[in-house]
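A.,

Following up on our hallway conversation. Structure tokens first:
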């Protein structure tokens, strides 16, 4: 209850700060607080035309890379459970595993968070191979965890996103916003791109494509100020169509949303998910 009250009060304070008579004074104050890493939660700041511009405009108080030792501990509470936003992916994986899908590439899968969390709700085929790619610090932590906890030996890790070549399913949950490249840019050079792509927990704007900064936190302590990519919904689907993929399913959730203070036109009121198929 206290946390909810604090969030409500913070929302009221930001609303007041964005009133026309207060905005000019409050905006530089917010920038100062963002730079000093004193804002609670995963705060957002600024709107930029590219990842490079966002990185150049980030405060020097924190790194601009997710490749930090603490990143492997961000989702430790999800290793034994799933979230509401995971259920569409569980549904589609159950259907794909019931068919002939046996090789899954988990892009940005942290330490195998989905692999460990889903196993309590989803029967894994005996010959399943679940391969995770993430930044080097997280891959190292994931390999150590898998050695201790993955008795079935189905989980592996790789340093190269190109190892998605030849996989049946590409899973991208909550990761596309952090990449320096778009997913179609990864898929197009592959000789045997995955037939199925599951995208989940992705911020898409109705009209605009832009990059902001997200202050990534662990236990209320800042880890990094990461460029955070938001793509226009229509452009996102068109990029996949150009790479040979069609939309099989599309869902959205208001469980996740994004508000950039002083940039109301760039707010995202829901996050999206898709099942794409290459015929």
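Then the amino acids I'd put at each of the 279 positions:
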């Amino acid at each position: 209850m206290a946390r909810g009250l604090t969030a409500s009060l913070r929302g009221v304070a930001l609303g007041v700060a964005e009133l026309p008579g207060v905005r000019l004074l409050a905006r530089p104050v917010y920038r100062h607080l963002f730079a000093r890493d004193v804002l609670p939660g995963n705060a957002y700041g600024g709107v930029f035309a590219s990842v490079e511009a966002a990185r150049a405009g980030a405060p020097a108080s924190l790194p601009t890379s997710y490749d930090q030792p603490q990143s492997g501990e961000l989702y430790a509470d999800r290793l034994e459970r799933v979230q509401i936003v995971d259920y569409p992916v569980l549904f589609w994986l159950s259907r794909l595993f019931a068919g002939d899908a046996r090789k899954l590439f988990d892009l940005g899968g942290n330490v195998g968070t989905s692999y460990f969390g889903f196993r309590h709700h989803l029967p894994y085929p005996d010959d399943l191979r679940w391969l995770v790619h993430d930044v080097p610090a997280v891959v190292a932590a994931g390999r150590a965890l898998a050695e201790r906890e993955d008795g079935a030996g189905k989980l592996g890790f790789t340093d190269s996103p190109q190892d998605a070549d030849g996989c049946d399913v590409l899973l991208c949950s909550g990761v596309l916003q952090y990449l320096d490249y778009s997913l179609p840019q990864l898929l197009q050079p592959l000789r045997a791109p995955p037939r199925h792509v599951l995208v989940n927990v992705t911020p898409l704007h109705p009209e605009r494509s832009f990059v902001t900064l997200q202050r990534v936190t662990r236990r209320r302590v800042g880890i990094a100020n990461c460029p955070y990519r938001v793509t226009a919904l229509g452009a996102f689907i068109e990029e996949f169509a150009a790479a040979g993929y069609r939309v099989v399913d599309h869902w959205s959730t208001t469980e996740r949303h994004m508000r950039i203070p002083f940039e109301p036109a760039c707010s995202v009121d829901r996050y999206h998910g898709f099942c794409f198929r290459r015929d």
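The longest strand covers residues 221-232. Curious whether your intuition agrees with the design.

B.
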